[in-house]
Amino acid sequence: MIAYDYGEVCNDPDAPEISQKNYFLWRLMIDEEEQGKGYGKKAVKLALEFVKTFPHGKADYCWLCYDKNNEVARKLYLSMGFQEIGEQDDDINAVIKL
What we know:
The chain is α+β, with helices and mostly antiparallel strands. The chain has a five-stranded mixed sheet with strand order 1-2-3-5-4, covered by helices on one side. The chain is about 20% helix and about 25% strand. Strand 2, helix 1 (about 40-50) and strand 3 (about 60-65) form a beta-alpha-beta unit. It has helices at about 40-50, 70-80; strands at about 1-5, 25, 60-65, 85-90, 90-95.
């Protein structure tokens, strides 16, 4: 799932500042039996290609968050150019320049 924050949608005071007027990879789910086959990397690549068409408006960044204990997700996102920007609760926020 992909979201775009128009600057009004995210009223959560705990949301990272990067959420304002940027895209958010909200959910990426790969069935447990299909993990480790490269589908996650391909899905993120396709999602970023779609986001770069700016379907809901121009943005500078796309961000996501993941469980700080999920080393597989961390390695995947960092390998694709995301950079960690800090923790929020039990998750780590990461961002990529579009």
